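Cross-check.
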Amino acid sequence: GLDMPTTLLASSRVPRSSTAIALCRHRARTRPHLATRAVRVHTSPPHRPRFLVVLNTGADAVEAEIVPDGPRGGTGVALPPEPWTSPNWNWGSARGDAHDAARVVRGVLNESPSRRRDWITAMVQSTPSDDAVPWEEVKLVMALAFQLSGHMRREVCRSGNGTWLEVMAMMQRGYFEGGMTGGDGGGGGDLALAMELEARLTPDGKNLLRDAKAAASASGAPAAWVHDAVRRSAAMAVLLELQFLEDGI
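Predicted model, tokenized:
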């Protein structure tokens, strides 16, 4: 673990002109455990509400200065439109597009905690019109975090509701492909993925996601923006619970 674990103070997913992201540094006297400490709702031009959620892992938290439109950028990995149904994906194999993509993503994000912090900040700030971190990259990072949880024997969700490896298996079957609502093959799409993630979160993670939904819905944004806000907020909550910032992928 880190001497000074880093956690996230995140905005709601509204257009970048009114988003704000900040990061907290704190000292933890015991093993880190995520806990929601504060939720504050602000209004900013053009009168779209945003929420700020402080996720701390211990005592003596010190908030950093809020940085509007914080760091940007994903890993640069090249992915097909729907990787998990691609015949060349071969998740879990030492040969295939999944193995090659995982090598790129791990090479970037396992570089340092600060690089992961920048990535998750850019991820939650991305929008349908400005996806600094593409959604398929987010799904790959989550799958790698699920895989690592199995290697570290902590795949059982802290909520007690199933395991993260179950979600990874559903991703491998292509169940969450097909856009927002899924395709003709019977999959559930991104909405089903967000529901699976939410069902496994702790109460703190569910509270974060609840506030994300409320803020995004109140923003008056189109349905695609609200949907994107919810799925990215769910991914953020899951990655924080899996100690992505501290341990990587």
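The two ends are 13 Å apart (CA to CA). Strands lie at 6-10, 20-26, 35-44, 48-56, 61-63, 67-68. Passed to J.P. for a second look.
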